Amino acid sequence: MASRQVGLFFGSFNPVHVGHMILANFMATRTGLDEVWLVVSPQNPLKKRGTLARDHDRLHLVELAIGDTPRLRASRVEFDLPKPSYTIDTLAVLRDKYPEYDFSLIMGSDNLASLHKWKNYELILRDFSIKVYPRPGYPGGEFLDHPNVAQYDAPLMHLSATYIREAVREGYSIHYLVPPAVAAELHKSGMYR
Ligand code: ATP
Fold first, then answer.
1. Distance from C-alpha of 112 to C-alpha of 131, rounded to nearest angstrom
2. Which one, of 44, 12, 64, lies nearest residue 189 by Cα?
3. Distance of CA 73 to CAs 14, 102, 167, Å?
4. How many structural domains are present in the chain?
5. pLDDT profile of the chain (193 residues), mean per 10
6. Ligand 1 pocket: which residues have CB below 6 Å?
7. Distance separating alpha carbons of residues 190 and 186, to the nearest angstrom
8. For residue 178, what is the domain's CATH number?
């Protein structure tokens, strides 16, 4: 049987917003993948926490955003890895833990353009396929033509988690900017206020 194709979408998701979800759903349904996992990055204990919400709170928001959407899953795999977590190490752990899955990476053209700075990037490029979505202003660089790299014209939202946090802090509505269940939880919990 062919292995299940799983795309990994890494982020701090602080908080998750509709830009992330539109992209995740596009990749999960239009690029040959069976699933997309939103992998929540943990706090680095050596860094000052600042505005980064607790790991479990951000994971919970991602779970709320997904709800029962088919093909999307939240992953907390990096919470239990040494920090900071390098993508190549996370990939090795996932391969070990889920031998029945075939993992690929989802990243913006901004990240692809600086992939040469990642730990063991040659191994990542050699062993994993990378699905790239365009970020305005970032042509993608030298790896765009690599045989394991494919670019997709995903619909993009000009939206960032920073924008959401600022809106919450300043008391503006975040209706339509985050999934309804996320808006309700942010309201109830007072996160980012
Ligand atoms: P912040 O404003 O806190 O930096 P962010 O919204 O950029 O956050 P991250 O959690 O860091 O969110 O993003 C996770 C991944 O999603 C990153 O690879 C980022 O490039 C990508 N991303 C962020 N915003 C969007 C968007 N509007 N559309 C598509 N991808 C996005």
1. 10
2. 64
3. 17, 15, 27
4. 1
5. 92 97 98 98 82 96 98 97 93 97 97 95 97 91 95 94 98 97 98 96
6. 11-14, 19-20, 23, 108, 111, 156-157, 159-162
7. 6
8. 3.40.50.620
Distance CA 125, CA 95 (A): 15
What angle is formed at CA 25 by the lines to CA 97 and CA 1, rounded to 5 degrees? 45
**Among all chains, which residue has been given the structure tokens 């014209």?**
153
Phi, psi of 105 (to 5 degrees): -110, 145
The pair of three-digit structure tokens given for residue 80, joined into one six-digit string: 């239990």
pTM of this prediction?
A: 0.95
For ligand 1, pick from 152, 160, 169, 177 the residue to mutate: most ligand atoms within 8 Å of CB: 160
- Give the pLDDT of residue 1: 67
pLDDT in tens, 24-49: 999 999 999 999 999 999 987 777 77
- Nearest Cα neighbor of 58 from 109, 20, 104 is 20
Domain containing 97 equals: 4-189
